[in-house]
Design goal:
By secondary structure, the protein is an alpha/beta fold. It is 37% helix and 20% strand. Strands 15-14-13-12-11-10-9-16-17 form a 9-stranded parallel sheet. A 4-stranded antiparallel sheet has the order 2-3-1-4, with helices on one face. The protein binds phosphoenolpyruvate and manganese (II) ion (MN).
């Protein structure tokens, strides 16, 4: 922790020293060339950090920076005793299906989470499941595919279709049995977590609930895999700290999902949200969690979904989460996110392109990136 303070502020300095002492910290003062000095807090800053706001009210104090991360359970870099910095290994989230195959999120390969926005009818989800499973088998990627469909839908307008609830979950259970593929579905209410945990293979926390701390903790208590979407107004640190609420409950089966953020360019006719691809790399560097990308909500338009998938591939997401439509004729009946649903034909071509990208382009990227890996290790 570092505190900026004007020189010759003896009274203010005394206040800081007293508070630091109370929390078992000592302070090292570094004199600046100009009118401002910096105070370096020595020792565990957790206690003193609770008073950051207060510290900034003390006369002469400028900014107060917290240097150590508050998301210790998921952080890539942590301090451990004498070793000042330890770099932790990446984590893999494993989700088995009734077909006996385990999906490894965070392994070498990019996985695919595919399915409709929401469950609407039995026929729709059964047909979607069949087609997705057939495609997975045809492309020999069954162990890289998980289904998705929402039964509890967060909607901006309360009068819009808000999902089929548990009836939809039971339909997804049937689709899982029939296809052998595991599925993920969204949960919005912490009181439903326990009941839902008996059904789905993976929870999804949507962008609108990304900072529902009670929901995060309750899912943490289940120990089940969870996809945590980034809140569309959240910066990266807020997103990581949301994940820490889950990890704090001893559940590290978390996947972070970037899905586009709100910017001044949203709703101007060319994107629904603004994709923040750089944050995938940042999240991979700052945390040990698998990071996935949702091109569907970022694009908001099916014709933009495939370029979004391929662009994201250069950032090596652990999975791509793509909303689909099982047949074009259903689009007029789809009650949520109809515009961005990718039809099966372009989906097949997009997945083939992703597989080609993995096999033929990523090795080139590896070679190009080696320069930066070498440069970082030379600096270390
Ligand atoms: C969804 O996956 O259908 C969804 C509602 O996602 P988000 O929370 O990212 O909008
Ligand atoms: Mn959706």
């Amino acid at each position: 922790m570092i505190i900026e303070i004007e020189g010759n502020r003896t009274e203010s300095l005394q206040k800081i020293l007293k508070l630091a002492e109370k929390h078992g910290n000592t302070i090292e003062q570094m004199q600046g060339r100009g009118p401002v000095d910096t105070l370096h807090v020595i020792g565990d800053p957790t206690g003193l950090a609770q008073h950051t706001d207060y510290l900034e009210t003390i006369p002469g104090v400028g900014r107060v920076w917290r240097i150590s991360s508050s998301y210790k359970n998921i952080a890539r870099r942590v301090s451990a005793g004498q070793q000042r910095s330890v770099i932790r290994e990446s984590r893999c989230v494993e989700i088995p299906g009734p077909d006996g195959l385990v999906r490894h999120f965070g392994g070498e390969k990019c996985l695919f989470i595919i399915g409709p926005d929401s469950v609407q009818t039995r026929e729709q989800v059964v047909e979607a499941g069949r087609k997705i499973a057939a495609l997975a088998d045809k492309l020999d990627i069954r162990d890289r595919v998980m289904l998705r469909a929402g039964a509890f839908k967060p909607r901006t307008r309360p009068t819009d279709f808000r999902g089929m609830g548990f009836e939809g979950i039971e339909l997804m259970d049937q689709v899982r049995e029939e296809t052998g593929l595991p599925y993920v579905s969204e949960v919005m209410d912490h009181t439903l977590v326990e009941r839902l945990a008996e059904h789905l293979d993976c929870f999804q926390i949507g962008t609108r609930n990304a900072q529902d701390f009670k929901l995060l903790e309750t899912i943490g208590d289940t120990g089940k895999p969870v996809i945590l979407k980034r809140g569309f107004g959240n910066d990266a640190e807020e997103w990581f700290n949301a994940a820490e609420y889950i990890a704090n409950r001893q559940n590290l089966n978390i996947m972070l999902c970037e899905r586009g953020v709100k910017t001044m360019f949203c709703g101007k006719g060319y994107n629904r949200f603004t994709p923040d691809l750089n944050v995938i790399t940042y999240a991979q560097n700052q945390t040990v969690l698998p990071v996935i990308y949702d091109p569907s909500h970022a694009a908001g338009n099916d014709s933009l979904v495939v370029p979004n998938m391929l662009s994201a591939m250069a950032f090596r997401p652990a999975a791509l989460l793509v909303e689909t439509i099982h047949e074009e004729s259903f689009r007029s009946e789809q009650l949520c996110d109809a515009k961005q649903a990718l039809a099966m034909d372009p989906l097949e071509n997009a997945i083939k392109a992703v597989l080609d990208f993995e096999a033929h382009i990523l090795p080139h990227l590896d070679r190009a990136q080696q320069y930066f890996v070498d440069r970082a290790s030379a600096k270390a």
